[in-house]
Amino acid sequence: MNRLFFRPEQCGMTKTEAAAQTLSGINPDVQLEPFTMNITTLNGFEAFKSSLMNEDGRSRVDLVLSCVDNYEARMTINQVCLELHQAWMESGVSEDAVSGHIQVVAPGETACFACVPPLVVASGIDERTLKREGVCAASLPTTMGIVAGLLVQNTLKYLLHFGQVTHYLGYSSLQDFFPTMNIKPNPSCPNPLCLKRQKEWLAGENERILAAAENAIEKEEDGPVHAENEWGIEVVTEESIEQSSSREENTVVPSTLPEGLKFEHDIGTEYDAREIKDQAVKPSDDAVEDLLLQLQNLSSS
Amino acid sequence: MNRLFFRPEQCGMTKTEAAAQTLSGINPDVQLEPFTMNITTLNGFEAFKSSLMNEDGRSRVDLVLSCVDNYEARMTINQVCLELHQAWMESGVSEDAVSGHIQVVAPGETACFACVPPLVVASGIDERTLKREGVCAASLPTTMGIVAGLLVQNTLKYLLHFGQVTHYLGYSSLQDFFPTMNIKPNPSCPNPLCLKRQKEWLAGENERILAAAENAIEKEEDGPVHAENEWGIEVVTEESIEQSSSREENTVVPSTLPEGLKFEHDIGTEYDAREIKDQAVKPSDDAVEDLLLQLQNLSSS
User: Fold this and answer.
1) With an 8 Å Cβ cutoff, are B157 and A174 in contact?
2) Residue A57 domain flag
3) Which of A44, A274, B116, B294 has the fewest Cβ atoms nearer than 10 Å?
4) Which one from A67, A136, A189, A194 is the annotated catalytic residue?
5) Does B98 reside within a domain?
6) Which domain holds residue A286?
7) In what order do the strands lie in the sheet containing A180-181?
8) How far away is chain B from the Cα of A247, in angstroms, using its nearest Cα?
């Protein structure tokens, strides 16, 4: 979450306070609940998870949008959402501020954040030279605004069931290049809870097909939802348009990537090393302490 | 320009007043000069042109960004910018609110707005059903925000000379499809001032090549611009990355279009008809009355 929405008089406020104030100012009818915490600590992890839960221990939200700026926080969101069977959308902007991405993570159905190393859109700038210690990362409100817009547009499509929800969408501003792809779950994902969710998803495949068929029959039998239609609103049928050359359905398993995308880490070394480390820790499901140990190992590597 | 930035307390203000107030609130150090007028009237045309001019009759601005919502206003901006040798960027969102585009217009160098009929990105929705009289056009802040972001990103690239300035970029939200192309000037453009600018541009080609070569030599001879570098800022060389499949350099003359794009009007009838009408009016350069006559003819067609 960038600080681009801050106004001078909000100087000194936290990002969450300032965001809540600005959003209330735009639409006072929306209920906002700001939480301010470091979710990568033990207490933060539990507080974050509780904030998403009903009293029955299930998720109380429709979708989680991630706008964090570091790997550990993303891994924490990934773990909480795996535990709660909660779909979430990841977003990010590169340190050189000229590229970014959004990604849908649906436990068991798509790759989780641990399934594949983070992808970055090739921006034409060598990122290593920008990641030197003591040198501040760049920030462009345009890139931030575009990535946020794409994230919320995908959210609307996901929640309101229109258009194609894009599983991964990259953005490289220097070339105006927007790669898309689907990322399947990794059957050897280092996160054991992800493997469990993958099995659950596969087991539910037949049920979902049956339910979808029944739903279609019920809808045909029902009349229109609204008998009165004061504003003359009609549903317009969508024509199927031909798939364009830029819309390639790329399915990714580590080591096969569409042009213009690369892994943030070197696959050959760091990704393999992470797998070994994670296996050495042998985390049990929902074990917070183990997760934290893993995160510490990762951040010190 | 969408009304998405309006806050409840700004109810009753004009869009320009509200925009100026909001922008000042975000950054009080930026000087803003709001003008509120209908630029498609005779007086509005002159007032708009004057607002862009220095006392010597030349343009005083670096770039004009168009955020208008109708054809007549775009044709007016096109005419004023052709008269002032002024580059501008056009932007728009479709009436179904799920697609949009940005376009760079540099007099003589690229197509002017009259060179080719307006392009729309195929959205998969039949627009005719949404353009019925009395039915309000849809508006999605996400689409508006993304198109505005892409417009300003292209502006930064254009003014600050980094990356590739995209001449035409479409956006279809339903498929996350982003077609790009270059649109060359139409040698039989119905606007005679555009034809004049095209000739001037071609005549200046050799001079520009010489000037660029001299400039390159001068730069080599100069030392660094800033002797001191307190923040350790370095220019990072850009690696050339391979052209992606989504980045096709399409050069358009009427009747050849990349996949997923279509003309807003039927080329075979309306576009030809417009040419004939414009020729019948025989407008002379800079003739405001003739332009207005053309616009009236167009809007009644």
Assistant:
1) yes
2) yes
3) A44
4) A136
5) yes
6) 39-216+246-300
7) A64-66, A88-93, A99-105, A168-172, A180-181
8) 6
Distance (Å, rounded) from C-alpha B194 to C-alpha B110? 10
A154-157: Cβ within 8 A, 24+ apart: A154/A89, A154/A102, A154/A104, A154/B176, A155/A63, A155/A65, A155/A89, A156/B140, A156/B142, A157/B173, A157/B174
A81 in a structural domain = yes
Other C-beta atoms closer than 10 Å to the C-beta of A215 total 10
Number of domains observed in the structure of chain A: 1
ipTM, two decimals:
0.74
Half-sphere exposure of A196 (CA within 13 A, CB side): 11
- Cβ separation A157–B174 shorter than 8 A: yes
CA of B158: which chain A residue's CA is closest? A174
Contact, B149 vs A100, CB < 8 A? Answer: no
Q: How many CB pairs under 8 A join A and B?
A: 148
Helix, strand, or coil (residue B92): strand
Asked about A189 being catalytic, the answer comes back as: no
- How many helices (H) and strands (E) chain A has is answered by 8, 7
Q: What is the pTM of this model?
A: 0.75
Specify if A224 maps to a domain.
no
* DSSP run (H or E) holding A89: strand A88-93
Cβ-defined contact of A247 to B177 (cutoff 8 Å): yes
Token pair, residue A215, equals: 């739903």
* Minimum distance, in Å, between the CA of residue A20 and any CA atom of chain B: 14
> How far is the C-alpha of A88 from the C-alpha of A137, rounded, in Å?
26
Give how far B101 is from chain A: nearest CA, Å. Answer: 12
| Whole-angstrom distance, CA of residue B246 vs CA of residue A258 | 11
CB contact under 8 A, B245 and A248: yes
What is the bridge-based pairing of β-strands B180-181 and B261-263? unpaired
Per-residue pLDDT of chain B (301 residues; tens, 9 = 90+): 777 788 889 999 999 999 999 999 989 999 999 999 999 999 999 999 999 999 999 999 999 999 998 889 999 999 999 999 999 999 999 888 999 999 999 999 999 999 987 665 555 444 433 444 565 667 899 999 999 999 999 999 999 999 999 999 999 999 999 999 998 999 999 999 999 999 999 999 888 888 888 888 776 666 555 666 665 555 544 443 333 334 444 555 444 555 666 655 543 333 332 332 333 333 344 444 544 444 444 444 3
Pair A84, A58: CB distance under 8 Å: yes
Q: Are strands A64-66 and A88-93 parallel, antiparallel or unpaired?
A: parallel
The CATH number covering residue A106 comes to 3.40.50.720
Please classify residue B235 by burial: count the beta carbons closer than 10 Å to its beta carbon, then call 0-12 exposed, 13-18 middle and 19+ buried: exposed
